[in-house]
Amino acid sequence: MRAAVLREYNAPLSIEEVPDPVCPPDGVVLRVEACGVCRSDWHGWVGEHPRVKPGQIGGHEYCGEVIEAGPNATHAVGDMLVAPFILSCGSCPQCRSGASNTCLDQRLPGFVEPGAFAEYVAVPRDFNLARLPEGLSATVAAGLGCRVTTSWHALTGRAALQGGEWLAIHGTGGIGLSAALLGKALGAHVVVVDVVQEKLDHAMGLGMDAAVLAGETTAAQIKDITGGGAHVSIEALGIPATVNASLECLRPMGRHVQVGLPTGHTARMDVNMSAVYQGNLALYGTRGMPSWRYPSLLGLITSGAVDISPMIAREVALSDVSDELAAFNGPTPPGVAIVTDLAG
């Protein structure tokens, strides 16, 4: 099969013919219909993700058709499935408590095992996967990827966002724009923050309530707009400037959710803990989404309560993935890229 392989950090991926994947006994092989290009892929491409090593086939935001099913699989040939990026074991204490995104024995295609920047991908533990609802395209389903699922869990499973609350979003890339759209669907007032005016204009065109061009007065501007500070703030980049702006823009008793990935040189950072102390703030970490929460998210989308399609800016070929990853080196344009031509 054709695949995009990481051979050297910060260098174009190598488009190669590699062996077809072997079907896991407890899983399936998918013909990849679509796969998102995510900032987490970029962290691996630049060498800052601790699990991604040369030789890796990336791609963890995938949707595809089952072409082979193992003897212990729960799905069948012909099923169209969408996957969370964390494949849980289903039996550890974390899984049994419902927090399968914190599973103690995770499988991670695209990070540790071969991912979906390829024509086919082997997926163990296929009980984690969800069937694609009627009317939802594979491209949009791949766009859900880790960005929409993570945002959904951040807002509802961690911050418990309520209708009428103010929600601040720091960074309007894939995760940030997802959180903004979902926040509006949940009835929140949403203020978006970014360094790129074009991205703010795009978000405002999708119905957000206010926009702030990021700078030294970001937190003060949000407090002014919201009449005292946001109730919930989502940090969607994983860098010190936005982490601190997120904390400092909250009203007393506010909730900060760390969604952006702090890794490599940002794994440890200076944080304004005085703002946390003085404001009686709550800090939540979140990564991924328990797979059992797919029905609530997919139901919201298929009911028409939220339209995710404006997030998808372009469909690209497998040979274009390197350019998409390199684009994350600087400010990016609005929307996300989805690989839909796996032979190109």
Automatic annotation (TrEMBL):
Q: Which InterPro entries match?
A: ADH-like_C, ADH-like_N, ADH_Zn_CS, ER, GroES-like_sf, NAD(P)-bd_dom_sf, Zn_alcohol_dh
| Cofactor names | Zn(2+)
Q: Does the keyword Electron transport apply?
A: no
- Start and end residues of each Enoyl reductase (ER) domain: 10-339
Say if the entry is tagged with keyword Oxidoreductase: yes
Q: Which UniProt keywords apply?
A: Metal-binding, Oxidoreductase, Zinc
Q: Name one Pfam family in it.
A: ADH_zinc_N
Q: Which family does it belong to?
A: Belongs to the zinc-containing alcohol dehydrogenase family.
PANTHER family found in the cross-reference section: ALCOHOL DEHYDROGENASE-RELATED (PTHR43401:SF5), L-THREONINE 3-DEHYDROGENASE (PTHR43401)
This chain's protein is named Alcohol dehydrogenase
Q: Which organism is it from?
A: Jannaschia pagri
User: Lineage of this protein's species?
Assistant: Bacteria, Pseudomonadati, Pseudomonadota, Alphaproteobacteria, Rhodobacterales
